Amino acid sequence: MKKNKTMIVTFLAPAVIMFAIIFIYPIIRTVAMSFFKIEGVTDPVSKWEFSGFANYIKLFNTQLFRISMWNIFRIWLLGGIIVMALALLFAVILTSGIRFKSTFRAIIYMPNVVSAVALATMWLQYVFSPKFGLFKSIGDFLHWEWLSKFQWLNPDHLFLALLVAYCFGMVGYHMLIFASGIERISTDYFEAATLDGANKIQQFRYITLPLLKGVLKTNITMWSVSSAGFFLWSQLFSMVVSNTQTITPVVYMYQNIFGAGNSMTERNSGIGAAVGVLLSICVVIIFVVCNKIFKDDDIEF
Amino acid sequence: MAKEKKLREPVNWKKEFHLTPGYIVLALWVLFTFVLIGWVVAASFSTSKEIFSGEVFKFATGLHFENYAKAWSASNVSVFFTNSLVYASISCVLLILVCAPAAYVLSRFTFIGNKIIQSGFVASMGVPATMIVLPLFGLVAGWDVLNVSLANRAVLIFLYVGVNVPYTTIFLLTFFANLSRAYEEAAAIDGCPPMKTFWKIMLPMAQPGIITVTIFNFINVWNEYFMSLIFANSDKVKPVAIGLYGMINSMRYTGDYAGMFASVVIVFLPTFILYIFMSEKIIAGITGGGVKG
Question: Which chain B residue lies closest to A271 (C-alpha atoms)?
C-alpha cells in the first residue's frame, strides 16, 4: 500500500500542480480582484484598494459595457437558435441512412479544425467583399439584387455578418454531438413506431426529440462556454476600435487592460476581473437552468 | 469486411428518392464550403488584379507561386510558422508526460480526493479565459520574463500545456479505465513494480488514445489566440494565429490581396492536412470521448 501511495503522489503531482497554477490560483485571485480598485495588473496586494461592488456598479453604468453584454447575449441567443436548428437538421439527415455519410460529416465539421483567424479572414476579405465576394457572385448569378447589393461590411450590418460567419463555423461541432445522440437511440423504437403507423415527422417529434434532451443540454452548455469566451471573431470583425456592433465583454476587457492607445476609462484591473466574474456567473446560471429544465430523463437508451 | 458488403448493397431508388431533400441540403452546404476554400486557394495563386476583376479560377497569367515565396520570407510567416510548430510539438509531448500518469492513477486507484480532482478538471473546462488571464499576466509580468524571448517562449508553452491539462487528463482517464486490469496483475506476479508496469506496459497500450488526444492538443495549440495575443510580447515569439492577424492588418494598406490569401493558406494548411488524414479519428474522439451527457 505504501508503494501505491508514493506512486499516486508522484504521478499526480505534475498535473495537479499545473492545474493549481493555471486554474485554481488565478480564479481565486480574479474573484478577489473584482472587489478592489487596482491600478496595474502587476500591483502587489498591498496596493489594492478595497471598493466593494464599485467595479460591478461602474461596469453596469458604462454604456459600452452594456452594449457588449447585449451583443454577446444576441450572439448567444440568435446564434444559438440558428446553430442548434441547423445542427439538429444536419444530424437528422446524416443519420437517416444517406450515402457518403462520413464524407458529409467530415466536410461539415472541417471549419472547426482550421485556424479561426484564417476562417474569419476568408469571410471578411472574400465572402463579404462588395467587389468580388461570394455572396455578391451568388446574388448576381441568381439575379437576387438584394443579395448582390447587400453591404455586409457596412458598420450597420457588421453584426449580421459576424453572426453568419461565426455560425457557419460552429454548426459542425454541435451536429456531431446531436448525431452521436441520435445514433445511440435504439432502432427498435422507430421500427415499433413505423409498425404503429407513425410517420417520419411524428417519429422525430415523439421519439427523437425527447430522447435528445441530455444531448441538447450538453450542446447548450458547450455553446454557452464558447460564447462566454467570444473574442477572436469580434476582434477581427471590428476594424474600427469604436465599433459598437461587434464589441463583446472579452474584447471590452482586453481593450481596457491590455489595449493599446485607447483610453476609454481609467486603468483599473479590478474592472477587468469583474468582467471575467460576470461572464463566469452567466455560464454557471445557464448550466444550472439547463439542468433544471432538462431534469434528467429517467429514460435509458 | 462489413464495409465492403455495405457498398455492394444495390441502390434502393425508392429510399434514395425519399432522402433527396436531405442530400440537397447537405450538398449545398458542402458546395459552399468547397467554393469558399477553393476560391481562397485559387486566389493565393493569382494576382491582386485578377482577384479584383473576379477571374480567379481562370489563371490567365499562370500560377503565381511567388505569392507564397513572398509571404513566407518577406512577411515573417516562416518565423510564425516555426514558432507554432515548436510550441505545438513541445506542448503535445509535455501534455502526455504530465497527464498520462495522472490519468492512469485517477482511473486505477481509489483515494481521498480522487473524485474532487476529477470534478475540478471537468469544471475547469467551462472556465472562460478571462477568468484566469489577469492573475497569470500579473505573475508573469512581475517576473519581467516577457522581455527575454526564450523565457517568453517557455511561458507560452507552459500556458498551452496548463490550459489543456484538464481536457487531456479526462480524455486519457476514460481510455485507461477501459483497459483490462489483467495486464497489471500479470506484471505484478512476474515481479514488475507498478511504476515500471505503467511506463512499459500500460502507456504503450494506451497508444490509440494518446494519438487522438495529441491530435486535438496540436490543433488547439496551433489555433490558440487569446492567451497568445496577451503573452507573446514580440514578433520573434508570435505564433501563426497572432502573426496572421498582424499581417492582414498591414496588407489592407499595401493592397497585396494575393499575398494575404497565400498567408491564409499557409496558416490553414497544417491542421487541414492533419484533418484530411485523421478526420475519422478526430470525429470518433469528439463523439466518443468528450461527451457524456
Answer: B134
Contacts of B75 in chain A (CB under 8 A): none
Q: Does A232 touch chain B (CB under 8 A)?
A: yes
pLDDT in tens, B163-208: 999 999 999 998 898 888 888 889 989 988 888 889 988 999 989 8
| A275:B130 CB<8 A | yes
Interatomic CA distance for residues B10 and A282, integer angstroms: 52
CB atoms within 10 A of CB A48: 17
Residue type (1 letter), B273 = I
Query: Do the Cβ atoms of A22 and B109 come within 8 Å?
Result: no
- pLDDT over 60 at B7, yes or no: no
CA A52 to CA A287: how far, in whole Å? 27
CB of A289 less than 8 A from some CB of B: no
Q: What is the pLDDT of residue A240?
A: 57
Residue range A206-226, pLDDT digits in tens: 888 888 888 888 899 999 999
- Distance CA(A32)–CA(B43), nearest Å, equals 51
Helix (H) / strand (E) containing A29:
helix A25-33
Q: How far apart are CA A176 and CA A220, in angstroms?
A: 14
Between CA B192 and CA B185 the distance in angstroms is 10
Closest residue of A to B19, CA-based? A98
More confident residue, B121 or A235: B121
pLDDT at A242: 59
User: b or e along A63-88 (b: 16 or more beta carbons within 10 Å of the residue's beta carbon)?
Assistant: ebbeebbebbeebbeebbebbbebbb
Show residues of chain B in contact with A126, CB under 8 Å: 36, 39-40, 43, 261
CA angle centred on B49, ends B31 and B267, rounded to 5°: 55
**pLDDT digit string, tens, across residues A214-265:** 888 889 999 999 998 888 888 888 765 556 778 889 988 888 888 654 555 5
Instruction: Say whether B172 sits in a helix, a strand or coil.
Output: helix
H/E/C letters for each residue in B222-240? HHCCHHHHHHCCCHHHCCH
